[in-house]
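Render this sequence as a predicted structure.
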Amino acid sequence: MEPFEYYNPVRVLFGEGILAKIGESAHSCGQRALIVTYEECSFFEKALKTIHASLGKSGIAWVDYPGVTANPLLCQARKGVELCREHELDMVIALGGGSVMDCAKIIAAGVLYPHDLSKMIMFSHSDIQSIAPEKSLPTIMIPTLPGTGSEMNPTAVITDEVTHQKSYVWTPCLYAKTAIMDPKLTQTLPPYQTACGGLDIFAHVMEAYVNGDPAVNLTLQEHMQEGVMKAVLETLPLVRETPQDLQARGVLMWAASIALNGWLTTGTFGFTPMHQMGHVLSARFGATHGATLACMMPAWMRFFVNRDDNAKYVQLAERIFGCSLAEAADRFEALIRSYEVQSRISEFGVKESDVGWLTDEVVSISFGPDGKLNGHPKMSSEDISTLFRASL
């Protein structure tokens, strides 16, 4: 393993009914909270009542902000910043999936940020002009959709509604103070959203697995990564068959955190090139994030079937799917289809004629100064075009 420094300050409260303790956690963060959730949040009515009651019991005031959509927008974050400043709020609480948590992080940092919010987002990896925030209001994350792992990482992804570019900010001040993880909050998730979240978890780990430095001995990380991927594939059917199974729901919720809290990539670094392609699809076509990755993963597996630099992909196929790489790609796509999740980007409305500008968008945002998309191996614009076409 390579030398590394690991830091993750997030306090985790996990278990059924743990949401009722939010007042105790919030008391150490401030006195006036912005509660960020979805524009359509009627399904969180009971959870919001629990939060309000617990905050009130602890003497904490709040302002509700039901203003976030899937694939959140900078304008939504700006509105949250305005509310915080207008009401002199000193902490931010997020109730929702990755979209809500990411937007909440940007709001919390934006209140103290001296520039326009767009300046903190890495909209170009080849000509870096972004300025990462250095401080943030304290945040509490309450995930309701296991997937992004945003509750335990210092990253937030957002879309500029003017340019339609989607990218991220990654900086230590975005770590939450506390993650309150109650599996019961996920019991009412529709099957499609549950499956998309599970596939997002799988993608996070798979990308670390196949893109870790091949020159580094990764035995420990590989076994940990394989364990999380297997757990996701074994747990998703249980949740589908018995949606009220809190043990299975809890496994998915914790797997989402583990996948991106740094445990699986210490001593190496796993790039996320599939995510870079998925971001363009969700920004331009409004596609669900996990579904874009469901389209990308089998395409990438097939891309490497006949290449000499495919050792990690072959190993993935053998250890996770128990078959050849070509067969694993087919099995994986069939599994995705069984959950009624899209596995082809044409299902989002993408046409052959869109491949050129989609590729240009990935190049513009995600390619480095060397004209390549980071990973092992690095990918050219021609490779990206081939992958988009293969996923149509």
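Summary. The longest helix spans residues 219-241. The CA atoms of residues 242 and 360 lie 43 Å apart.
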